[in-house]
Amino acid sequence: MQLQATVRQNQYQDSVRLMQISRQASSLPGVAKVLALLGTDSNKKVLTDLGLMDATVAAATANDLVICVEAETDEAIARALAEVDARLCATTSGQVTRENPKSLEEAVSRLPGANVAMISLPGQFAKLDVAAALEQGLHVMLFSDNISLEDEAELKQRAVDKGLLLMGPDCGTAIINGVALALANVVRRGAIGLAAASGTGIQEVTCLIDRFGGGVSHAIGVGGRDLKKEIGGAMMCQAIRTLANDPATTTLIVLSKPGDPEVMDKVMAEARASGLQVVACLLGSDETTEAGGMTCVATLEEAAFVALGRRVPETVLPEGLQQRTEALMPERQHLRGLYSGGTLCYETLFLLKDSLDIQSNVAIKPQLKLHYPVKGTAHCCVDLGEDEFTQGRPHPIIDLGLRLERLAEDMADPTVKVILLDLVLGYGANRNPAAELAAALTAASQDIPDGGPLVFIHVCGTEADPQNLRVQEALLQEAGAFLFPTNAQAARAALAVIRGGL
To answer: What is the pLDDT of residues 368-390, one digit of tens each?
Structure first.
């Protein structure tokens, strides 16, 4: 194999798009791997670990594009570079586009009437563009990591002063007026609005609302740090006020892990004053109450069903599960979870915390916390979307590669009884994740005398998503997986199997 690294100066590109292009170019004949990355310090560390660092790459800046190709021949390297160039110059429809605007001001002038700016830049460079967008009177969705708390607090206060929304950072999901922004699903319009801290939390709740007959007015992702003392709930309160003023919204879901106590009091007071029916889901809190027009719940599943005005349905075990369970070898005792959605992983840990000691990189109990590479020896659930797994790699919602490697390991472990997985659909996600997962399940279960561990999957998506929920579920069912309509139901069923209580 031959390696070649090329640097294109001042060619900043969206990181998610670069990941997709890298993956597509890597599939060419004779090409082992293509990495198209910005020259950030963290990406340089990845390239160093891969043996791809040289003087040219070392001199690249965060605004430079670094393309590394590992291929069999010089011709294959040339084809890979040409493929990357072609895809960088093309729109998603395959048509060559005109030159990108050079500034936010130029972009606004090209699209009069625009009122939202989506900004995806390395965190250390995003502040000025966010401030410029707010000055232009634009709401902002900030799809960036590594924004300092100080900058986030300053920018959010500036947005509040101007009556604007600053969605994110650390929450790449929103649905505004039925339009999915970044990683989000196509859900039915309705009267339920969400002000939420977490991206996959929004996706799970909005998809459950859609799956069980309801609809969403808006889902505003405010970012995972908004309820910290330093931020003071600035955007959560702004989002609640925005939804309270929306005539299409009659029910409000406030969704977050518990934050600073004073900030939580402030946010709850804002919610109570909204005049809306309020469902407060403080994930990880044991508080479940109903008083004064506000219902407090502890899980994503409960939030969706209370907002719908329905009881949480009983867990229905899939056909054939009893028979497969009885055929398992007796040494199989352990639960494993491989999650792409951090909030879904956390919901499972919360639901099972009083029944099983589950090791995790996001463990609720400190003594059960595992550090990278997070490989447990007993019960273990891993959030593969945490920063430790996504430095220089696509998020597992986009690229299943790392998760499939971990799945093969757990499938081959004779002590594993149940494997829990989520599969998140929608815009920005892998275009056909079930096909990759089904192929991996089929390959991994071959030649295992008892068929291998039971695989429980919850697909977070809708029939209107580009991947189509029903199509994805059918592929997985055909591969022998057991499907559940909610993440919580999958977790409860897994517990029943581990306990031998089916």
So the answer is: 999 999 999 999 999 999 878 88
pTM: 0.85
Distance, in Å, from the CA atom of 62 to the CA atom of 41, rounded to the nearest integer, reads 8
- Structural contact between residues 361 and 406, judged by C-beta atoms closer than 8 angstroms: no
From CA 443, how far away is CA 460, in angstroms rounded? Answer: 24
Nearest alpha-carbon partner for 138 in 110, 101, 108: 108
- Let me know if 482 is exposed, middle or buried by CB neighbors in 10 A (0-12, 13-18, 19+): buried
Angle, CA of 119, 121 and 142, to the nearest 5°: 35
Q: Is 123 exposed, middle or buried (0-12, 13-18, 19+ CB in 10 A)?
A: middle
Residue (of 324, 345, 328, 323) closest to 336 by Cα position:
345
Q: Which two tokens stand for residue 453?
A: 């561990």
Q: Which residues of 84-100 are buried (b: 16+ CB within 10 A; e: fewer)?
A: beebbeeeeeeeeeeee
Q: What is the DSSP string of 344-355?
A: HHHHHHHHHTTT
Packed helices 261-272 and 234-244: angle between N→C axes, nearest 10 degrees: 10
> Residue 215: exposed, middle, or buried by beta-carbon count in 10 A (0-12, 13-18, 19+)?
middle
Residue range 14-46, pLDDT digits in tens: 776 787 788 788 888 888 878 888 887 777 777
Q: Token pair of 246, please?
A: 């929306």
The per-residue DSSP string of 431-500 comes to SSHHHHHHHHHHHHHTT-TT--SEEEEEEE--TTSTT-HHHHHHHHHHTT-EEESSHHHHHHHHHHHHHT
CA-nearest of 149, 201, 147, 154 to 173 is 201
φ/ψ bin of 477: left (φ > 0), alpha (ψ from -120 to 50), beta (otherwise): alpha
Nearest to 338 by CA among 430, 426, 405: 405
- Establish how many alpha carbons lie within 13 A of residue 124's alpha carbon, considering only the half-sphere containing its beta carbon: 6
Adjacency order of strands within the sheet including 65-71:
2-8, 65-71, 31-38
Q: How would DSSP label each residue in 52-76?
A: ---HHHHT--TTSEEEEEEESSHHH
Q: Which residues of the chain have pLDDT under 70?
A: 16, 50, 91-98, 288, 391-392
